[in-house]
Amino acid sequence: MAPVSSSSEALVSLFSWICCQRKSTKSTKTPPYKFVHVLKGIDIYPENLNSKKKFGADEKTELSPKSLISKTSLHLDLEKRDLNGNFPKATKVRSSPDLEDITQPPTQENEKDSVSPESIKSSASLSSVDKQNNLGTLFFSVEYNFEKKAFVVNIKEAKSLPAMDEQSMTSDPFIKMTILPEKKHKVKTRVLRKTLDPAFDETFTFYGIPYSQVQDLVLHFVILSFDRFSRDDVIGEVYFPLSGIELSDGRLLLNREIHKRNVRKSAGRGELLISLCYQSTTNTLTVVVLKARHLPKTDISTISDPYVKVNLYHAKKRISKKKTHVKKCTPNAVFNELFVFDIPCEGLEDISVEFLVMDSERGSRNEVIGRLILGASADGTGGEHWKEICEHPRRQIAKWHMLCDG
Question: What segment(s) does the record annotate as region Disordered (predicted)?
Answer without folding.
Answer: 86-126
